[in-house]
Design brief:
The protein is built from 11 helices and 15 strands. The chain has 341 residues and is α/β, with parallel strands linked by helices. It folds into 2 domains: 2-12 and 21-161 and 298-325, 3-Layer(aba) Sandwich (Rossmann fold); 163-296, 3-Layer(aba) Sandwich (Rossmann fold), CATH 3.40.50. The strands form 3 sheets. A 7-stranded mixed sheet has the order 3-5-4-6-7-8-14, with helices on both faces. Helix 2 (71-87) packs parallel to helix 10, helix 3 (101-113) runs parallel beside helix 4 (126-138) and helix 5 crosses helix 6. Residues 61-316 form the Periplasmic binding protein domain. It is found in: Cell envelope.
């Protein structure tokens, strides 16, 4: 029991790191959708939503989300539905409304019992998913992981953010914005947030090699808490009055940092780079409170996961690992980004 509780706590932290505190799940009943745009209420007891494409003989795919109503996962849902419509497949959207890996596993077991063609999921604690994944593979059901990966022999493919590339791109963008010179503070969830530390180290290495006059002068922990981010930002400004930029590696930090910077009257002097495309972060960009954000492309994760399952089902070779890429969003491309789908 203690081991299971520890795994669940680890998974909660991992989701916070991967999704960068992207928002709260939506409560209430789920819905059934013919497309992402047209929705109606399902029968009582429905586990999730279904996007049905034309044709009853197409592939049947179950997308087991770690959080049904979380904003970034809804983007993944829309991507999966768009791909399903293109190829004449059916995607069923299921999962818990709060972190519950047992429920994720139960939904995968139901998908296996229904003999679906493919399953898309995010194995927050991979060891918990290994057995059910192997049972799915034994029935020739294709498994594609998104955002978090499991052992290569437990799934068909993985699509998600390449954290080294993410860090390098963030560093490059900051360097260009700062004109190749400046002092940068980094805000992270915790110092043992593996993905965030990987991003920061990759970014720091890129700066040392390509922009040595842009220096990371301090790294502070926020615990993905807006108030802590504000307090830490104020303390950083006191200690480093010549600070030029703040690089946030989780999505609560831009909210707190922008508040603290604004209170000091330094909004036009300190560049803030956030992470992910939550509504709050995009609103801050629109208001001019922060410069930009590095997004993780959850829409592409969902879209490409469906295409991978279709290709694998047809006997085609698919990459074991695919980087879903990242996009820098600033005020210059904000509206275009919002209207991308």
């Amino acid at each position: 029991m203690k081991k299971k509780i520890a795994l669940i706590l680890t998974a909660v932290m991992l989701l916070s790191m991967v999704l960068a505190a992207c928002g709260s799940p939506v409560s209430g009943e789920t819905t059934t959708a013919e497309t992402a745009q047209a929705q109606e209420s399902p029968a009582e007891g429905s586990a999730g939503t279904t996007a049905a494409a034309d044709g009853e003989d197409g592939l049947v795919i179950t997308f087991v989300s770690p959080l049904l109503g979380m904003e970034v996962w809804l983007n993944a849902k829309y991507g999966a539905e768009a791909a399903a419509e293109e190829i004449g497949a059916q995607v069923t959207w299921v999962g818990p409304s709060s972190i519950d890996m047992d429920e994720q596993v139960r939904q995968i077991e139901l998908a296996i019992a229904e003999n679906v063609d493919g399953i898309i999921s995010c194995p927050l604690s991979p060891v918990i998913f290994e057995d059910v994944y192997k049972r799915a593979l034994d029935k020739n059901i294709k498994i594609v992981n998104t955002a978090v990966d499991s052992a290569e022999d437990t799934r068909t493919a993985y699509i998600g953010t390449d954290y080294t590339n993410f860090g390098e791109q963030a560093a490059k963008n900051l360097s260009e914005k700062l004109g190749g010179k400046g002092n940068v503070a980094v805000l992270v969830t915790s110092l043992d947030s593996e993905n965030q530390m990987s991003e920061m180290k990759a970014g720091q290495a890129w700066l040392e090699q390509n922009a040595p006059d842009v220096k990371i002068v301090v790294t502070e922990v926020t615990n993905s808490d807006t108030a802590q981010a504000a307090d830490k930002t104020s303390a950083i400004i006191d200690t480093y009055p010549d600070l030029d930029a703040i690089w946030c590696l989780e999505a609560a930090s831009p909210l707190g940092s922008s508040q603290a910077v604004a209170e000091r009257g330094l909004t036009d002097e300190i560049v803030i780079l956030g992470i992910d495309d939550t509504t709050d972060v995009l609103d801050l960009i629109d208001q001019g409170a922060i410069w930009g954000t590095m997004t993780q492309d959850f829409y592409k994760m969902g879209y490409e996961a469906v295409k991978m399952i279709a290709a694998a089902h047809n006997g085609e070779s698919v990459p074991s690992v695919q980087d879903s890429g990242t996009t820098l969003v600033t005020k210059e491309n904000l509206e275009e980004y919002k209207n991308r789908f």
